[in-house]
Amino acid sequence: MQNVKSLLNHITTSLTEFYDLREAHSIALLTLSELSGISSSKLLSDPAAPLEIEGLEAVIAELVAGRPVQYVLGSAEFCGRRFAVREGVLIPRPETEELVAWILHEERASHRLLDVGTGSGCLQFLTGQRLTVSTWRFVSLRRWTICSVGTVHIWVSIPL
Questions:
Q1: What is the pLDDT of residues 79-113, one digit of tens each?
Q2: How far apart, in whole angstroms, are the C-alpha atoms of residue 133 and residue 125?
Q3: What DSSP designation does 15 have?
Q4: In the chain, where the domains are located
Q5: Which CATH class is domain 4-73?
Q6: Residue 10's CB: how many other CB atoms inside 10 A?
Q7: Which of 85, 74, 157 is nearest to 122 (CA)?
């Protein structure tokens, strides 16, 4: 049976051709944490702990093929919450977290907000929960998106 350290090194080494060492290590740690259900801090605090991950080589192959880790794992963290992502959904970016913070701080009096290029819907979801916005308008070129109005969130199909 392998241990945390050997698996972390194996994933990191597999990715160093495509990422710098620090980024490869971060992706490896995120991957191990998500697949094992063990927090990153716990994995790092006990590197000798035995660990087996079923299907790990297939996941590594997807990562090596250039598929973003968020698509491989099926989720992305954004503003402390986990959002499901898949091919065709924009992966929430750290810069967008700054936008959410700005909206929540500066736009408390707004009654209307517009999001063009809705993506995963995380912007409307997070701001819709914390602001009293009477009208949320969004524009998406995707077939499926999340429509958020106030605190009601539903999947809608958009005819193309």
A1: 888 888 888 777 888 887 887 788 777 766 665 66
A2: 12
A3: H
A4: 4-73, 94-157
A5: mainly alpha
A6: 16
A7: 85
Q: Taking Cα atoms as reference points, which of 5, 125, 19 lies closest to residue 67?
A: 19
- Tokens matching residue 91: 């992966």
pTM of the predicted structure, to 2 decimals: 0.73
Do residues 148 and 124 lie in contact, with contact meaning Cβ atoms separated by under 8 Å?
A: yes
**Do 82 and 30 meet the contact criterion of CB atoms below 8 Å apart?**
no
Residues whose CB is less than 8 angstroms from the CB of residue 49 and which lie 6 or more positions away in sequence, other chains included: 3, 4, 43
Q: Token pair for residue 154?
A: 């539903």
Band the pLDDT of 155: cuts 50, 70, 90.
very low
DSSP state of 76: E
**How many Cβ atoms from other residues are within 10 Å of residue 91's Cβ?**
17
